[in-house]
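Hey, can you fold this one?
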Amino acid sequence: MRSLNLHLKILITLLVGLGILITAYQIFILGIPLTEDETDDLWNIDARVEFQASPREPVKLQMFVPPLHQDYVSLNESFISNNYGVSINRADGNRKVTWSARRASGKQTLYYRLVLTKRYSGEQTKAKGPIFRDSIPVEGAEKIAADALLAPIRQHSADVETFISETIKRVNNVNDDNIKLLLGGDASTPNKANAIELLLSIAHVPMERVHTVRLTADAPQSPELWLRSFNGEKWLYFSPETGQQGLPSDRLIWWIGDDNLVSLEGGKQAQVSFSLSNSEMNAIRLAKLTDENTDADFLEYSLYGLPLQTQQTFMIMVMIPIGVLVILILRNLGGLQTLGTFTPVLIALAFRETQLGFGIILFTVITALGLSLRSYLEHLKLQMLPRLSVVLTFVVVLIAVISLFSHKLGLERGLSVALFPMVILTMTIERLSITWEERGGGHAFKVAIGTLVAATLAHLLMSIPELSYFVFTFPAVLMIMVGFMLAMGRYRGYRLTELFRFKAFLKD
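Sure. Predicted structure:
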């Protein structure tokens, strides 16, 4: 017995622990939304390219577009132009679109449109990058100024991260004569980035320029320059103006490197303006769209990977254990008497179609009339099988009559009575009649009321949309419920009704 108890405890612990771990993985790692009403941001980005085309010359315009291989995923990408060929190339971690035309004249306008959202899958590829670089050649006064700046930077830094932060801090001190010399009177952000790169290269610290777009629906904007360096494990991002470390969550990397956003052949005065708009979409629908547009399969192997019609069936099926759990608690802890465990649950499922109030009336009427017929057939001394056949036929006729009269009276809800499981009603009538014979009409009435109460409570719980969504989306919670059911199987204590039943005995 002791080994059996240990075996049961281990089984319960495994089931509950595994259910919690799988559910936590879906919520915190895969980022699947907890509620169906939860929404996520959807960003629409328009890049408008304008330029003057040179007459009688072929036009070739190239522009960087987001690589979208990290935190964001593209749901739709379109290139809008008139009589231009479009191609996309990849190089050095970037993507570049090329618009080309044999002839064009006058002012030209091209559009790049991107619809994106945050990537749902938390699984990221391992970062890779250089950890060493050669020094940029520098001589004369610039060499002396760079060495004078690097000495205190080395003294005040402990690793690559603090070295870069201290370098950016020094370069932004424009009152320093050494910085003035390196900047040459130009304190613009790109020139500061050149000075930072020079100092870092002498220390053999690699650095890359990262051009980002801010995901905000404010006024039109231009790409913002950030710097990054690889420390052997991950990329470290820095603002060349403020020294702020860590790329903000609202930044989208557009391209990496020293090249300009746009290069143009056969034209001049190329300009790019960005405009962004934000909208919201149902989170789980967005997760499915994300799953379809990437190589991720975190929803593919869930119930959402089934055909839509099958999903609707399973949406009901996964709620049956919830109803069973209600009956288990009502019987084992409450002491409520019902016609078995599954009969109330099946009646509760029928209430989904007929609605609760109308379903209770139909259940009461059909059961009462069926019991009357069963009592009459008992006097004919029929065997059980013929008796059940007659009751089943009577139930079918009764359902047809109720549906017909309901339709004539304009009560379309009465037509749903045909969805009641006829076999369940027949067996319910048969079992109630046997209970009546064996233990009396009072006990049979009590069991019928208990069955109806249990079915009503199970139906109310199984009809909660939030609960239905949660169990369907995170089916591992059923393992936790199984663990609870196993624990309930060893309960030998008093039931609630027994406390009232033995109340007088306890007083003595």
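Residues 38-131+212-283 form a domain with the Immunoglobulin-like fold (CATH 2.60.40.2250). Let me know if you want another pass with a different chain boundary.
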